[in-house]
Write a structure and sequence with these properties.
By secondary structure, the chain is α+β, with helices and mostly antiparallel strands. Helices cover 17% and strands 27% of the residues.
Length: 159
């Protein structure tokens, strides 16, 4: 099992407006675990002497907050909806995602894709024949929205 241990030193090169925000840590967790990582263990600077309840606001590189812990719960709940022993990375499932970064995982019966991008992108997927349900989940709130059904089309040769 591979772990991502003691993240928590975000800096301006991580491309976030404020390195102390939780966005970079939420992104790291989703990208690592959706790639097949087994453990994500970050340094949470909101726990400090006098703030044992995790409410300290750190004004330096490093993150953590009650909000981030709620957001990481969304990821935990998402992953636990899969049959964990059968869960595997699916790097070839997303064949193309112009303008977006993706990670894919799945079992024989269920697949999941993490998409990070700055706008509209059309994903080309390699899915087995069958009926697939498309649902989008907000990684901050966990709010889900079913968009429709996917039906894999016949594969066409690349040109």
């Amino acid at each position: 099992m591979v772990s991502f241990d003691e993240s928590g030193f975000a800096n301006p090169s991580d491309r976030v407006a404020a390195p102390e925000t939780d966005a970079v840590y939420r992104r790291q967790a989703w990208e690592f675990l959706m790639a097949g990582g087994g453990i994500f263990s970050m340094l949470d600077y909101s726990f400090a002497v006098g703030h044992e309840d995790g409410t300290f606001v750190n004004h330096a590189p490093g993150g953590g907050s009650p909000a981030l812990r709620r957001q990481l719960r969304v990821l935990k709940d998402y992953l636990h909806a899969f049959d964990i022993p059968d869960l595997r990375p699916r790097p070839g499932m997303v064949e193309a995602s112009p303008g977006a970064f993706t990670r894919a995982i799945g079992t024989k019966k269920r697949r999941g894709i993490y998409v990070r991008g700055d706008g509209l992108s059309v994903l080309r997927l390699d899915l087995p024949k069958g009926k697939w349900r498309e649902e989008w989940i907000d990684t901050q709130t966990g709010a889900g929205r079913e968009v429709g059904r996917l039906r894999p089309s016949r594969r066409r040769p690349a040109r």
